[in-house]
Amino acid sequence: MLYAIHEMQSSIAAPWRASARHWLEWAGSPTNPFRSWPLNDVVGATSDLTLRLTQEYPKRPFAIDNIEFGGKTVHIAEAVVLDKSFCELRHFVKLGVKNPGPKVLLVAPLSGHHATLLRDTAKTLLQDFDVYITDWKDAREVPVSKGAFGFDDYVQYIIDFFHYFDERIQVVSVCQPTVPVLCAVARMADKKDPLRPKAMIMMGGPIDTRSHPSQVNEFAKGHSLEWFKRHLIARVPAQYAGVGRRVYPGFLQYYGFVAMNPDRHMKAHWQYFNQLVRGDDGSVEHHRKFYDEYNAVLDLPAEYYLETVERVFQEHHLPLGKMVIKGEPIDLAAIKDVRLMSVEGELDDISCPGQTSAALAMCSIIPASQKEMYVAPQVGHYGIFAGSKFRSMIYPKMKAFLRK
């Protein structure tokens, strides 16, 4: 029903989009006799904003074409080195470079946005490291024949990715995957797996959401799991490859993102409208670039989403020592020789300060000399892994930690 309503709304808005597209083309046409009139700019801006507010946004490419490495410009090519049912392991290849740097696995969130949200993170890491990233697939495009995908499967995927390298590498996890990555490392350490990572950096993740609960955490605790099943889970309709699969739809997640800060988004769109009228091309492009990424969402497998809500946000399995993966308990005390760093933002209102750094105390056997904690001042959730403050304040500390 949820998907049917969404598709119906999209169909109803189609004439509005067609009309807006027509007026936008007319406003910018060289044959428009009213092109120099101030009102024409208002018509064009209104049409442009109408299109952006009603259209669907596809996944954007990483588009990392070149980077500065070793004092020169190096071209980058993307290669899928491991293709699994719900995720691709993607490698950013430095063309013509024999020693691209130490290998780093960048684990992107499976929480609504595409892995391309970490474009800035990957591009910055590439200046010093050989970077691989988990590029999660949209669940609505995964056929039901591929089976279900739950929290345990996510942990196993991470282990499989570590095994791909056939050497001990380093891992950086951003937001949601901090929990399954920590579970994977503990499971590998417990089994004395020789391919367990050498070091891990956990950035803005919900390791222990009892510490300074955010609005997101309170919402999860305030509703039963049955409520989430009944109100947020839908089946993929017939026009997609994953027809019949139960998912947490991307469009619902998007509404949730916007609902957290509605005033900020309304202000941003109003500023965009005025920038269009004034012809402020630089600001217009900046707005489009941000929202083209922010508005592009994917569906999550229902099993994974519900199990994450239950285990991480409602019952706190990992910090309480109750986490079980594929029938085996997760023992964080098994982690002894993996260096650990936590990165948090002082103003993070999604994974508040204290939630990620909780991992330092939970991994009690790792020597204190092998642990680091950094709280970035005046930085919110997205600023932890993207933007000027990430590049100038946070990355240098990450680089130093990974270089040790």
Task: Give a written overview of the molecule.
With about 400 residues, the protein is α/β, with parallel strands linked by helices. The chain contains 13 helices and 14 strands. The protein has a nine-stranded mixed sheet with strand order 1-2-3-5-4-6-7-13-14, with helices on both faces. It has a three-stranded antiparallel sheet with strand order 8-9-10. Strands 11-12 form a two-stranded antiparallel sheet. The model has no long low-confidence stretch (mean pLDDT about 90).
The helix fraction, in percent, is: 40-55%
Shape designation: globular
Number of helices: 13
What oligomeric assembly is this protein in? single chain
Counting helices, strands and paired strands, the structural category is alpha/beta
Spans where pLDDT lies below 50 across 5 or more residues: none
What's the total number of strands? 14
What is the distance, rounded to the nearest whole angstrom, between the alpha carbons of the first and last residues? 53 Å
Radius of gyration, CA atoms, in whole angstroms? 22 Å
Per DSSP, what share of the residues sits in E-state strands of 2 or more residues?
15-25%
Helix and strand succession? HHEEEEHEHEHEHHEEHHHEHEEEHEH
Overall mean pLDDT score? 90
Give a short account of the largest sheet.
Answer: 9 strands, mixed
Order of strands, widest sheet: 1-2-3-5-4-6-7-13-14
